[in-house]
Design a protein that fits this description.
Elements lengths: L4 E2 L1 H10 L2 E5 L6 H16 L3 E5 L17 E2 L7 E7 L8 H9 L1 E8 L10 E4 L6 H11 L6 H14 L10 H11 L5 H4 L9 H10 L4 E3 L2 E6 L1 H7 L9 H5 L7 E8 L3 E8 L6 H6 L3 E2 L3 E7 L2 H18 L6
Helix pairs in contact: 2-4, 2-5, 4-5, 5-6, 8-9
């Protein structure tokens, strides 16, 4: 893991010297991942750079309202780059196939992230574990580079800030966070434009999936869990393995300190989505399982099948509950 390491000048010099820039982010991208890709990508295009943005599988449907989302590639094949920037990914594996391609075809790699579980990969670091989102780090970097914030850039960056803080409700939000939000809104972006499209948006199929899988809900030792099987997804006509935001709902249960979704994937793998109340650390559990994230929000992908995943993961989460203490203030 890495503490704050902010090599602003080195990163800026690398951008100055590069003409072709690849920006990648993590698998199963959220608002911060896509907001980071687009916010930084559009800003660097304005600096005259040839920018390629990529994430395995492309952009989730609910984030396609962001300007430039149709320019993001779902895979890479034949290009080479002077510079690769990895955003919002705590480790190399989380960047998927586009990240692996980029590392093999880029001269220099910048690691831009805000996760305490970051594994310190790459050549230049913009890792700020005190930041609430990767888009906060990018906003600070653009300010360092004296890069003007256009409305398009600010919309993407504020989307990342809003979604990663659950609408400014996570425990790491502070006065600085709100100051950055003000800076971005002053560029012409409205919070009412972002909230309904992200935090307040659910498809009918998502709600159908919740009804389908909540039959498997269990609560034991302060840990609430739900399974999502491939059969569940097929039953409601969903093709991706998203939990549709269910893990955040489970985390609201009074008796639960930790929530986990066991999401069945092809090839007997299981994707874990973890959330916890303040005072309980699921980030260290995810890291021990080969994943990463924050103390209160993390994830990992492990080998299955589901019963084996339960046996491996639930004891670790129950231990995290025993070692934690609820923080209300």
């Amino acid at each position: 893991m890495i503490a704050n390491k902010l090599e602003w000048e080195k990163a800026t010099q690398a951008v100055r010297e590069a003409q072709s820039v690849l920006i990648v982010t993590h698998l199963d991208p959220d608002g911060d991942a896509i907001g980071s890709l687009l916010g930084l990508g559009i800003a660097l295009q304005a600096r005259g750079k040839t920018v390629t943005m990529a994430v395995d599988g492309g952009v989730p449907g609910y984030l396609k309202f962001l300007p430039g989302s149709d320019e993001i590639y779902a895979k890479l094949t034949t290009r080479k780059f002077d510079l690769m920037i990895s955003v919002d990914a705590s480790d190399e594996e989380r960047t998927g196939k586009v990240g692996a391609y980029g590392r093999n075809n880029s001269q220099t790699i910048i690691n831009l992230d805000h996760h305490a579980t970051n594994t310190a990969f790459g050549d230049i670091y913009l890792v700020m574990v005190d930041a609430v989102s990767a888009t906060e780090v990018i906003t600070r970097w653009l300010s360092y580079m004296d890069q003007p914030l256009t409305r398009e850039v600010a919309l993407s960056l504020l989307t990342g800030l809003v979604t990663d803080t659950l609408g400014f409700r996570t425990s790491n939000v502070n006065a600085s966070t709100l100051g950055i939000a003000q800076q971005l809104t002053e560029a012409g972006v409205s919070l009412t434009e972002i909230m309904p499209r992200t935090l307040e948006s659910k498809s009918f199929k998502s709600i159908q999936l919740w009804g389908q899988v909540l039959r498997s809900i269990e609560l034991e030792g302060g840990v609430v869990s739900v399974d999502i099987t491939e059969e569940d997804l097929a039953a409601v006509g969903m093709k991706d393995n998203s939990d549709a935001g269910l893990v955040s709902l489970l985390n609201q249960i009074n008796e639960a300190m930790v929530a986990v979704i066991f999401n069945e994937m092809p090839n007997e793998q299981v994707k874990l989505s973890l959330r916890s109340k303040r005072g309980y650390d699921v980030g260290s559990v995810a890291l021990a399982l080969g994943g990463g994230g924050h103390e209160q929000a993390a994830g990992a992908t492990i080998n299955g099948p589901l019963p084996q995943a339960h046996e491996r993961v639930l004891p670790l989460l129950k231990q995290a509950v025993e070692e934690g203490e609820l923080i209300i203030a």
